From TrEMBL:
Gene3D superfamilies with a match to the protein in the record: Periplasmic binding protein-like II (3.40.190.10)
Family listed: Belongs to the bacterial solute-binding protein ModA family.
SUPFAM superfamilies (UniProt xref): Periplasmic binding protein-like II
CDD domains attached to this UniProt entry: PBP2_YvgL_like
Entry-linked Pfam families: SBP_bac_11
Taxonomic superkingdom: Bacteria
Keywords carried by this UniProt record: Metal-binding, Signal
Protein name: Molybdate ABC transporter substrate-binding protein
Length: 243
């Protein structure tokens, strides 16, 4: 996945670096938008993204996948890597936040003014992230348990492998409802937000990033993390619905 080679035309004969960033699926659009501007400022660096559920990405890193930077949609998955001493000390930082929303297809006629108003009898199914490996699924489970709906809705749950699969289920009409991040709903013109979860119902949706200890490009990895916290990075994240 990662490597380096001499590239003709690079500044001052600098070695070309391919920086591999494993990132939560919900970051897809914002990071893709940032890619060109970062590479323009760091002409010897090209970024390769590996998007997926934070839990699965963390597992890949523990199994030795070549990754330079890990961007998680939850502290829990970053904690796993930190506990196994797979991160460079002091590089971990929180760089953005998100909110949890209930969505339906844009053409749906029914109204669900709050999560507590989800009617088991009125829906065929509801798409959520797999709670064991997908952060948005864990947050969703916390909300539904808080509202005493988790057990009631078990036979209606359609579990997605990451938040974008949950979004797709609702976009295609394969699920009446879905629970995603506000940033995912923000980028889709095929769904509408029906309700937002009270942040007191779930753990804080915080996105930590860190440099993976096995990186061969520590300086470039540090630079990318710093870029996320720069004004340019903040603007890009906010433009795609992050807080």
């Amino acid at each position: 996945m990662a490597g380096c080679s001499s590239r003709s035309g690079s500044n001052d004969g600098e070695e070309e670096v391919e920086l591999v960033v494993a990132a939560a699926a919900s970051l897809t659009d914002a990071l893709t938008a940032l890619k060109d501007s970062f590479e323009n400022e760091h002409e010897n660096v090209s970024i390769t993204f590996n998007f997926g559920s934070s839990g699965k990405l963390a597992t890949q890193i523990t199994q030795g996948a070549p990754v330079d930077v890990f961007l998680s949609a939850s502290p829990k998955d970053m904690d796993v890597l930190e506990g196994e001493e797979l991160l460079i000390d002091s590089t971990r930082r929180n760089f953005t936040e998100n909110a949890l929303v209930l969505i339906g297809h844009r053409d749906a006629q029914f109204q669900v003014p709050s999560f507590g108003d989800i009617d088991n009898a009125a829906i065929a199914n509801i798409a959520i992230g797999e709670p064991e490996s997908v952060p948005v699924g864990r947050y969703t489970k916390e909300v539904l348990e808080h509202l005493d709906l988790w057990d009631t809705l078990q036979n209606k749950l359609v579990r997605g492998s990451d938040v974008r699969q949950v979004l797709t289920h609702v976009e295609l009409g394969n699920a009446d409802l879905g629970v995603v991040y506000s940033s995912d709903a923000f980028i889709s013109d095929k769904v509408k937000v029906l309700a937002e979860a009270d942040p007191n119902w779930h753990a804080p949706i915080v996105y930590p990033g860190a440099v993976v200890k096995s990186t061969k490009h520590e300086a470039e990895a540090h630079a990318f993390l710093a870029y996320l916290g720069s004004e340019e990075g903040k603007k890009a994240l906010e433009a795609y619905g992050f807080k």
